[in-house]
Amino acid sequence: MNTPQPAVTGKRFQRPGRQAGFTLIEMMISITIGLGILAGLVGVLATNSSNSRTNDRTSELLTNGRYALDSMKQELRQAGFRGYTWAEPTLITPSTLGTLSNECLGTGAGAGSFIANIRQSVWGANNSNPFSGSCIPSASYADGNDVLVVRRLAAVPSTTLTANTIYFRSSYATGQIFRGTTAPTFPGSPTPLASFALQTYVYYISPFTVSATESPLLPALYRVALQSDGSMSRELVASGIEHLQVQYGKVTTMPALTTQFFDTIAGASSDSGVTDWDNVNAVRIWLLARNETAEPGYSNTNIYSMGDQTYDLSAAPDGFRRQLFSTVVQLRN
């Protein structure tokens, strides 16, 4: 008599002593699918990483360029500020200011004549370095860029005078530059009367940020600034600034009463007499910012027009991203 076998429901019947598992073909299919998913994930991560680096480079450009431009705009808005007076400053013998270390002197200029030229609020050199023999050595200047000089007084008068600092004594009727703790006296003891520290800045482009041996070379916007001890020294404004171009606006009567911009104006930076620089009422600035490192797979073929210069990369493209910044500043003083 045959005994009926119980029905097997919901699972596979296995013979005694035999284990169930994946076949070789199933394993190969699973591995192939897994590798495909992994490759897709790697591609997504690589794309996200590349986009993140591109965004970082763009942020770097915008930050450096905007900071550099804002710094120059702030100084230009105060250019020509002479405290309480609008009168012509009293002329002095520049040599009475004593030794001024690293003063920005052009060819043939006498010691003290650059610092003493307080009447000249702005001055510029077009595509050249007039101070290669003094405050801006040739190795620290990137060829083909403009040099901009800004002169003004501190926003508030000094309550205590210190030795070696250069000041401007100012009243409504007159003003005079001096150095140290002995302020000049004016006939009649006019009021108000106060001494303001002199501030002078010379902006230029350096081919490097830290040193000429850095790799890669990262250009930067620098300025030579008058210090409290009467010397002039270099100060980094912003790294990654590759080019600087400046134009100067004057009101002209022909063909109509309007402001026209010029790349250069007659007159030296140490001329204490009346020059066309006295008529400048606006300054136009271009700054070209550049990334610190080249971006793999990117080719910059752009053409950048700045003042009287055009920087054409179409013939020799590189992997650096760039951003052009421009503004016009109206002089208030």
Largest sheet: 7 strands, antiparallel
Fraction of residues in H or I helices = 10-25%
Radius of gyration: 33 Å
Average pLDDT rating: 89
How many helices in DSSP terms? Answer: 1
User: What's the β-strand tally?
Assistant: 13
Overall tally of structural domains:
1
From the spread of the alpha carbons, the general shape counts as: elongated
- Tell me what portion of residues adopts beta-strand conformation: 25-35%
Low-confidence stretches: none
Spell the H/E element sequence: HEEEEEEEEEEEEE
N-to-C CA distance: 123 Å
Secondary structure class reads alpha+beta
Task: Describe the fold and architecture.
The protein has 333 residues and is α+β, with helices and mostly antiparallel strands. The chain has one domain. The protein contains one helix and 13 strands; from the N terminus they run H-E-E-E-E-E-E-E-E-E-E-E-E-E. The strands form three sheets. Strands 1, 2, 3, 4, 5, 6 and 7 form a seven-stranded antiparallel sheet that branches. A four-stranded antiparallel sheet has the order 9-8-10-13, covered by helices on one side. Strand 8 and strand 9 (258-262) form a beta hairpin. The longest helix has 54 residues, at 24-77. The radius of gyration is 33 Å and the shape is elongated.
Which SSEs are present, and which pair or pack?
Elements: H1 24-77, E1 122-125, E2 147-153, E3 166-170, E4 175-179, E5 194-206, E6 220-226, E7 232-239, E8 241-252, E9 258-262, E10 280-290, E11 303-306, E12 309-312, E13 322-330
Antiparallel strand pairs: 1-2, 2-5, 3-4, 3-5, 5-6, 6-7, 8-9, 8-10, 10-13, 11-12
